[in-house]
Amino acid sequence: MAKELSEVELLTELEPVVGDYVNRHLAIAKTWNPHDYVPWDEGRNYAALGGTDWSEEQSELSEVAKVAMVVNLLTEDNLPSYHRYISENFSHDGAWSTWIGRWTAEENRHSIAMRDYLVVTRGVDPVELEKARMAHVARGVHAPEDFSGVLIQSAYVTLQEVATRVSHRQTGRVCNDPIADRMLRRIAQDENLHAVFYRDLTGSAFDLAPDQTMDAINRVIQDFDMPGRGMPNWRRNGVLMVKHGIYDLRQHLDEVVMPVLRTWKVFERTDLSARGDQIRNELGQFVEKLEQDVVRFEERRAHLLARQAAKADRDAKAAAGSRN
Questions:
Q1: What is the pLDDT confidence band of residue 146, given thresholds at 50, 70 and 90?
Q2: Is residue 291 part of a domain?
Q3: Is 252 marked as a binding-site residue?
Q4: Long-range contacts for 103-110 (Cβ within 8 Å, ≥24 apart)?
Q5: Average pLDDT in the 281-291 region?
Q6: Is residue 104 in some structural domain?
Q7: 268 annotated to bind ligand
Q8: Is residue 311 pLDDT above 80, yes or no?
Q9: Was 110 annotated as part of a binding site?
């Protein structure tokens, strides 16, 4: 069995490829300005400046669009915690530091654009939004104690960036507003480039330390949780987003987990030891179970939606009958 590399050795050996990936990112990333994605002419003062405070009828977003926008925004708001975790598990020097700074600056644009859009268009109650932001950011992110190290962080953020990209794109589609859709597509493009960086970094780690990287990937996929967990109304909002296909188990499997596993050639690698192969088998069994869970989930959701549609039809008929 190959000797396990220490965190210092992993960081040192990976720094040259981090430098290459930073240069590649800087060459292809497009600069954009959050203010270009906000319809400022729709804005008007709130009561503190002599205007009118928010009320429900001012919002043109559906309930699911409001929930998805708030969940995505609060997720982006927690950037200070994400920056701290990545800084603690990467390096403060060289190419590592350059990437952390660049990634943080780019991510910060997302919450700026989304909040300005929601406040200007009065899409959601800005007072409740600020209360939720304060609670969520004050709480921060709490990863499991053993979820540390460059390999764990790189694998986790790969999946998280892809998942966030999916959530932003789906949210844009349900907003029924071309401006919101354009803004969220722009944000999703950032997330995609970030996912590519972390995905390729993890791939390089696989070549450097296959068993250790296999272990990290297995742990991340089996214990994966979206970074927004713990925010106010998380359970209720999450159920609504799942129900309406903003981010559900099928998307998690087909658009997040399987694409990155294929890119890393996890089930094709021949450089694993017996221990690494055993871990890969565990991951394979988990993925098979996840596929079965997806089928059951879709059956339950279809049944629930059919029941709700039938109830709505009965209620409509009853209302029509009472009018007659």
A1: confident
A2: no
A3: no
A4: 103/194, 103/197, 104/79, 106/29, 106/190, 106/194, 107/76, 107/79, 107/82, 107/190, 107/194, 108/79, 109/32, 109/34, 109/187, 109/190, 110/76, 110/187, 110/190
A5: 96
A6: yes
A7: no
A8: no
A9: yes
